[in-house]
UniProtKB/TrEMBL annotation, chain A:
Species in which this protein is naturally found: Pullulanibacillus pueri
Record flagged with keyword Amino-acid biosynthesis: no
Keywords: DNA-binding, Transcription, Transcription regulation
UniProt-listed PANTHER family: GNTR-FAMILY TRANSCRIPTIONAL REGULATOR, HTH-TYPE TRANSCRIPTIONAL REPRESSOR YTRA
InterPro entries assigned: Tscrpt_reg_HTH_GntR (IPR000524), WH-like_DNA-bd_sf (IPR036388), WH_DNA-bd_sf (IPR036390)
The protein's name: GntR family transcriptional regulator
UniProt keyword annotation of Amino-acid biosynthesis present: no
GO MF annotation terms: DNA binding; DNA-binding transcription factor activity
Automatic annotation (TrEMBL), chain B:
Keywords: ATP-binding, Nucleotide-binding, Transport
Xref: InterPro entries: AAA+_ATPase, ABC_transporter-like_ATP-bd, ABC_Transporter_VariousFunc, P-loop_NTPase
GO molecular function: ATP binding; ATP hydrolysis activity
Domain ABC transporter, chain residue ranges per copy: 5-230
UniProt superkingdom: Bacteria
UniProt-recorded name of the protein: ABC transporter ATP-binding protein
Length: 121, 299
């Protein structure tokens, strides 16, 4: 059984993010077929309607498209769309939080910069 | 979408005791719904009325657009697996399934055989020699293989171990995907089933207190914890659904709301932690004895 880890957010959003992650990592190349909603449902043990909602969210954003009678496919250029979206979220989700925690611990902006550079080595 | 179950102002009372009080809800076709609540909340009574085994004291209900009482067309479409379903004690498992096969028009014998194997049930064992968990498995097999357009499971897994429960969820989802039908499930293991439910109904003391899409219930409450004085300041004007716990100078409170950006900011400023609340915790808080029963508005 596979579990979606986050209990506080709607499952359909988590399904959509899972698919986006796979697109970024290359597990789902452009123009490749995405698993069916029923496959998602039994893999994650979730309601098929919920899985469909997650997939349809990505269709609305032009990341997936439907081939009639065959299934869902990754749109050409989907990776670029997802990367752009995720980059915009990166500042809000990670950078702001990091700065808040640093402030709480009395870490100065200089020290923070050093730490990030250290990670690069 | 058509409504499979349509209930209006349903009430059932036994003398002075009111078991079900003015309950109205409907279930659209091909959904998996959960009927949740504490022991004695009235879940089984509602299921008995849906399956025409009990008359309501007042109110109206339609199943497949018709009244279910002595209505063969409707009752043929229903499979009801009761919490402690009795089978003839001298029958063996195989006999019970044979009888079930004649009762349900959509019965799939091959599917039943596969389930029998997966659940490790001995075909030739007599019902009276089965363990509690094995008896529950018999009910689950009948419920799934019946493929009834309306399948009702009332606490289907008394005594069933985690492996068998997992098997049940897997088979339910897979078979439902291939053969969509309406499923109504009552259970206490809320966290386990909340992922497979599309609609959640919560009954408390005979009244329907929640009727929502499962996914919108997720994240509809959060807990906040920290110094008691700070928590007190934070919860002003918010909907608190538990009686805040205190430990030393610390308190935690559960708030019925999705945390907004300002809430997180305010919590950060006050040095409070915000954590998520699962559907199970949420229902415990809403139906628990130590809360005020329902959400209270703080001034």
């Amino acid at each position: 059984m596979n579990t979606l880890t986050d209990d506080s957010r709607p499952i359909f959003l988590q399904i959509a993010e899972q698919i986006e992650d796979d697109i970024i990592k290359g597990g789902l190349p452009e123009e490749s077929q995405v698993p069916s909603t029923n496959q998602f449902a039994s893999f994650y043990q979730i309601n098929p309607a919920t899985a469909a909602k997650g997939v349809n969210l990505l269709v609305d954003q032009g990341i997936l498209y439907k081939k009639r009678g065959i299934g869902m496919f990754v749109t050409k250029g989907a990776r670029e769309i997802v990367m752009k979206k995720r980059r915009e979220q990166f500042y809000e989700q990670y950078v702001i939080k990091m700065k808040q925690e640093a402030e709480k611990l009395g870490i100065t902006a200089e020290e923070l910069k050093e730490m990030i550079m250290k990670g690069e080595e | 979408m058509s409504k499979v179950v349509d209930i209006h102002n349903l009430t059932k009372s036994y003398g002075k005791d009111i078991a079900v009080k003015d309950v109205s809800f409907s279930i659209e076709s091909n959904k998996i719904c959960g009927l949740l609540g504490r022991n004695g909340a009235g879940k089984t009574t509602i299921m008995h009325m849906i399956t025409a085994q009990l008359f309501p004291t007042s109110g109206d209900l339609k199943i497949f657009d018709e009244r279910p009482y002595e209505n063969r067309d409707v009752l043929n479409k229903i499979c009801f697996i009761k919490e402690s379903q009795k089978y003839p004690p001298n029958f063996c498992v195989h006999d019970v399934l044979e009888v079930a096969a004649t009762l349900f028009p959509n019965w799939d014998q091959r599917f039943a055989k596969r389930l029998l194997k997966d659940f490790n049930l001995p075909r030739k064992r007599r019902i009276k020699k089965l363990s509690r968990g094995m008896l529950s498995s018999v009910g689950i097999i009948i419920g799934l293989a019946s493929r009834a357009p309306l399948t009702i499971f009332d606490e289907p897994y008394l005594g069933l171990d985690a492996v068998a429960r997992n098997l049940f969820y897997n088979h339910l989802i897979e078979d439902y995907a291939d053969h969509p039908r309406t499923i109504l499930l009552s259970t206490h293991l809320i966290d386990e089933v909340s992922k497979i439910l599309e609609q959640v109904m919560v009954i408390d003391k005979g009244e329907l207190i929640i009727n929502e899409e499962a996914d919108s219930l997720r994240g509809s409450a959060y807990a906040v914890a920290g110094l008691a004085t700070k928590v007190d300041a934070f919860i002003q004007g918010k909907k608190v659904i538990n009686k805040p716990h205190s430990l030393g100078g610390f308190t935690s409170a559960v708030i019925m709301d999705t945390p907004k950006f300002e809430d997180r900011k305010q919590a950060d400023l006050l040095g409070l932690n915000i954590t998520s609340v699962s559907i199970q915790e949420l229902i415990v808080h809403l139906t628990g004895g130590n809360s005020q029963g329902k959400a209270v508005e703080l001034q």
